[in-house]
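Chapter summary example.
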Amino acid sequence: MDDDEEREFSRSIVYGFFEQAVATFKKMDDGLTSRDLTQLSSLGHFLKGSSATLGLTKVKDSCERIQHYGAKSDDTKTKDEPDDDARLRSIKETLAQVQEEYSEVENVLKKFYEANDKAIAAAKAATIAATE
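The structure predicted for these 132 residues follows.
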């Protein structure tokens, strides 16, 4: 995926996802406040796709559950759930869970890129020292 050792291509995609996720979580909070199940389903679907692209399975699965709850279904989309209050409670619980999952992967990915940056800096310093 990356052509250079600094991983600029993947870094831009991952950090773009971070921004997108934070904005989407805010919209989901707003959707809960306004009780907009259709919007919540749409936002769950949107973030599910983005997280799946990056291979963030736990985040993807939680977003898919939000999508299903918003679409008047249970978490597996195998039966209808007509009770809006029950679905909103389920979305609220799942949103808290997905935010924790997101926080975990954000920390891991940021540490990965920071370690990569340090390794590159060390290699450059060693090259400079060797040429002096």
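To summarize the output: Helices lie at 8-34, 37-53, 57-70, 84-131.
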